[in-house]
Amino acid sequence: MAGVKLERVNKRFGSTRVIDDVSMAIGDGEFVVFVGPSGCGKSTLLRLIAGLESITHGDLLIDEQRVNNLTPQERGIGMVFQSYALYPHMSVYQNIAFGLKLAKADKQTVDERVRQTAKILQLDGLLERLPKALSGGQRQRVAIGRAMAREPKILLFDEPLSNLDAALRVQTRNEIARLHERLGSTMIYVTHDQVEAMTLADRIVVLNAGHVEQIGTPRELYERPASRFVAGFIGSPKMNFIEVTAHPVPEQGCRVEISAVGQRTLPLAFSAGSASEATLGVRPEHLIPSPSKDGQGLEIVNVEYLGSEAYLYLERDDGELLVCRTQASSSFQRGERVVLDFDPVHAHLFDRDGRAMAPLARHESITEPQGTMS
Amino acid sequence: MTLRTLKGIVLKIGFWVLVAVLMVYAIFPFYYAVVTSLKPSSELFQVSYWVDSVDFSNYAAVLSQPTFLAAIRNSVIVAVSVVLIALLLGLTAAWALGRVRFRGRTTVMMIVLGVSMFPQVAVLSGLFEVIRTLDLYNSPGGLILSYTIFTLPFTVWILTTFMRQLPDELEEAAIVDGASPWVTLTKVFMPLLWPAMATTGLLAFIAAWNEFLFALTFTLTDSQRTVPVAIALISGGSQYELPWGPIMAASVIVTVPLVVLVVIFQRRIVSGLTAGAVKG
């Protein structure tokens, strides 16, 4: 088991910068998830850590040791691939034993390890089968078993659940979480699915266009996103964004004017000295709708009933939609008009560069984000 | 009977007639060789399409010739060596050309293909000098060398094509497991390329087994000849007699191994093409 440290890591393919000055430290035994839209470089970053791609510039340290030029095996990593990449001509037993045999472990050790691994992953009865005789979930478990049989210091997962159907995905997600608890090894997991990221991670790394947007616990990312990108990426349905003009108010934060809501003073440290354009962000569950009495407010253009909750879609004057979560029992109908309210504590304000404004000191009821911004 | 069913029957008959024509076209020469080889020399020029009486005297005559037996031995040595060398070099070259990204990869592939376009005659004299220099004249080594040159291009091309179809992640999984390129090639790729190797190996074997021009040019003595040359040089009692019976018997004897090989590997080839057992 070991920590991983990236120091200003860069990767270029030709002249394209795929990874741009990424630095982070991953603690021993931590479960870190890289998340981001496709093409953001998350898989490349994982492959750099694995040693399947070479680092153009910067240092990668595992256990305080520079490993830039070591092979994946020397780095002590195990990897689970998106397509599983099981050896199709080898039985489950041989698949799991392959790495051990190459490491010149004696027969007895190999056998012990394989059986132990199989037991943990409930593959006991399948050891003699070929991969083609296994279901998707079983293949997935074999792939994990192959990665962990050599007891690597770090386990890497490259979108391991994307080939499974929805029900199996939830189940396997749970199994991976339990496995992490049981093995206690450092795990790095790549996904584009923010639900996977939120449920599995100790800490999430949000990547965008090759650089780190924010690093933090799921709660930090959700409650205090450091940028508009993170705010929009984490959470489903997405956070509502409204363009506003913000005026700084000494001691109190800043004042914004919002249609269908009115004026609000937000307890946020406004960076600009005078009034300037900004983006207000409020999550759907923090918008509180109430029926409009005077025919003002916003029109409900759609109601999505999900059983446990319902989403209202409201059309603004400029055609943009706002999403608002309500209880399933609420009686809002399509075509009705509503006015909105929200608790200023739950509001986010982003400057023109998309950076979040920090909360004022005395309003800090929520943990301060520790993530670095770049 | 309606017109429709009649049409169906006619079409069906037409189909089988076509199949029969093709079968006869493909098999008749070989069939006639077998029939001829089973006739005693006295009946040789009576045309008949059926075997009336089986007479193995031609086979006995051929197999009692020590030079023919030596020729079979030489052919086996040469063909097997060519297959092994071509597959070994072809597989490693295919790994490099199909898996490793390097500058000039396409150029190399084109040169490999270009080499195979030269007619044998064009390189005959040059190759003769090479073989003389290497002191391989009149020995199986010379033939192995020259056949390998002509077998490698298509071996490399076919294996490279198959190699490219194998998923990248399979190789990466092997790398993560700590496999060297050689181990990856032999333990992971080779079992998956087995159908392709059977196909190319078979083609290489047939090419080496049947080759005539080089075999005639690069050997001198009876003891070093391969089967095609040996058959061509089977002579009768006088220069005015062509011993058709023994020639046909010898031809049948040397064709049988090929047929057996194809039958053995046929299922492998077909299963390899259909199963595509690569997707993990």
UniProtKB/TrEMBL annotation, chain A:
Task: Please give the GO cellular component terms listed in this UniProt entry.
Answer: ATP-binding cassette (ABC) transporter complex, substrate-binding subunit-containing; maltose transport complex
Q: Mind telling me which InterPro entries this protein's record contains?
A: AAA+_ATPase (IPR003593), ABC_transporter-like_ATP-bd (IPR003439), ABC_transporter-like_CS (IPR017871), ABC_transpr_MalK-like (IPR015855), ABC_transpr_MalK/UgpC-like (IPR047641), Mo/tungstate-bd_C_term_dom (IPR008995), NA-bd_OB-fold (IPR012340), P-loop_NTPase (IPR027417)
Identify the stretch annotated as signal peptide in this record: none
The ABC transporter domain extends over 4-234
Gene3D superfamilies per the record? 2.40.50.100, Nucleic acid-binding proteins, P-loop containing nucleotide triphosphate hydrolases
A single Pfam family it belongs to is TOBE_2
- GO molecular function: any one? ABC-type maltose transporter activity
Q: Which UniProt keywords apply?
A: ATP-binding, Nucleotide-binding, Sugar transport, Transport
Instruction: Tell me what this protein is called.
Output: Carbohydrate ABC transporter ATP-binding protein, CUT1 family
TrEMBL record, chain B:
| Family named by the database record | Belongs to the binding-protein-dependent transport system permease family. MalFG subfamily.
Q: Biological process GO annotation list? A: transmembrane transport
Q: Which lineage is the organism of this entry classified under, starting from the top rank?
A: Bacteria, Pseudomonadati, Pseudomonadota, Gammaproteobacteria, Oceanospirillales
SUPFAM superfamilies, per the entry = MetI-like
Tell me any Pfam family this protein matches: BPD_transp_1
Q: What is this protein called?
A: Carbohydrate ABC transporter membrane protein 2, CUT1 family
Q: Where are the transmembrane segments?
A: 9-32, 76-97, 109-131, 143-162, 188-209, 244-265
Keyword annotations for this protein?
Cell membrane, Membrane, Transmembrane, Transmembrane helix, Transport
| Chief place where the protein resides | membrane
The record's Gene3D superfamilies line, in alphabetical order, gives: MetI-like
Q: Report if keyword Transmembrane is assigned.
A: yes
The chain's coiled-coil residues are: none
Q: How does it sit in the membrane?
A: Multi-pass membrane protein
Domain of life, per UniProt, equals Bacteria
The subcellular localization recorded is:
Cell membrane
One GO cellular component term of this record is: plasma membrane
